[in-house]
Amino acid sequence: MSGRVRTAVLISGRGSNLAALIAAAREPEYPAEIVLVVSNVEAAAGLVIARGAGVSNAVIPHGNYSSREAFDDEIDRALRAAKVALVCEAGFMRIHSHPFVRKWEGRLINIHPSLLPSFRGIRVHQQVLDSGVRVSGCTVHFVVPELDSGPIIAQAAVPVHPGDSKATLSARVPEAEHVLYPKALRMVAEGRVKLEGGKAVFV
Ligand code: GRF
Asked: pLDDT (tens digit, 9 = 90+) per residue, 52-64?
């Protein structure tokens, strides 16, 4: 028994944050270990990363389930079968049902490519460019039923340069994400931040 916190990562795509979490967890003193990757998309490039790193992985295609709840139940079964204690969403493009969120509340975290509470939802870099803000960034937060609204665990700022495009921003922001997410997971795994009474409490 390593005593590290058994952690799953939910993905739908590229998996660059997954790669950053796996790399961080390779360090023996890192407090979490990545024991399972779940993708709802069979062709997700992140699955290749998981397999290459020897991490157990499961494909659970959302289209195979008649409801959001049934899909989430299957994810929940996979998480419990792997004895997972913490779940990181990393580019997971499905909205969870409320029962699933309630069940994993305080143990389910997500990374979002903006400084929340600004620019929730999708097409985030375009929203940032349209707004004219000079600073963007990324946020790791506890997941609550309302989309991109959970208590904030950690954030990093990223400058928006004149002449930036969706392509340049969507290359710069992930660089910050790959540093932030492992730090945030460390904080949660070490119990240095908890979700209590709907707030992130730092201890
Ligand atoms: C990241 O920008 C993350 O903030 C957002 O989805 C993207 C996932 O990228 N939720 P990747 O699959 O980790 O490369």
From this structure: 999 999 999 999 9
